[in-house]
Specification:
The chain is an all-alpha fold. The chain contains eight helices and two strands; from the N terminus they run αβααβααααα. The chain folds into two domains: 1-96, EF-hand (Recoverin, domain 1, Orthogonal Bundle); 108-164, Orthogonal Bundle (Recoverin, domain 1), CATH 1.10.238. The chain is 48% helix and 2% strand. The protein is elongated, with a radius of gyration of 15 Å.
């Protein structure tokens, strides 16, 4: 799912160490058929708004699918999605932030480089997760941010427990 056009090879990790990315996968699998297609990504980017930055362009979407689609069937199944995100989590994405950085940019609807209460509320609602503002503020504080200024990319990774 990384738009850089580079291929990431999933690192072999034990089942005990595997994080669960099912909620993130479900958000991107718009038609809930168990695989992420180009159409799913178009729907995802249209729903979250791309801030005029061209995230929904076909070339970008094709690149994202190609990077994650290890069996080359044109779709990204959960195991492929998990493999790419696990690689990013372990710091093997080539240092560009990869998928998580792209996700952060998509969630950052006002493009200020921080995720605030409004950004997180919108994204969580899209994900089908309904939480009140106090819970969202708690997430921001967990990430080391401020309820007034939000959380930066590293804080976002901390919220997701991907930054150690």
């Amino acid at each position: 799912m990384c738009p850089t056009g580079t291929t990431l090879r999933p690192k072999q990790i034990s089942n005990d160490d595997k994080p669960d990315f099912r909620q993130a996968f479900a958000v991107m699998d718009a038609d809930h058929d168990g695989k992420i297609s180009s159409d799913d990504l178009r729907v995802f980017y249209a729903a979250v708004g791309d801030g005029g930055q061209g995230h929904g362009e076909d070339d970008m979407i094709k690149a994202m699918i190609n990077v994650a689609d290890s069996n080359k069937d044109g779709f990204v199944q959960y195991d492929e999605f998990e493999g790419v995100l696990s690689t990013v989590e372990k710091g093997e994405s080539g240092g560009d932030g990869g998928v998580m950085e792209e996700l952060f940019k998509v969630m950052d609807s006002d493009c200020d480089g921080r995720l605030g209460v409004d950004d997180l509320r919108s994204y969580l609602k899209l994900s089908g997760i309904y939480v009140d503002d106090d819970e969202i503020k708690g997430m921001i504080l967990l990430g080391g941010g401020s309820v007034f200024d939000g959380v930066d990319f590293n804080g976002f990774l901390s919220i997701l427990n991907l930054h150690h």
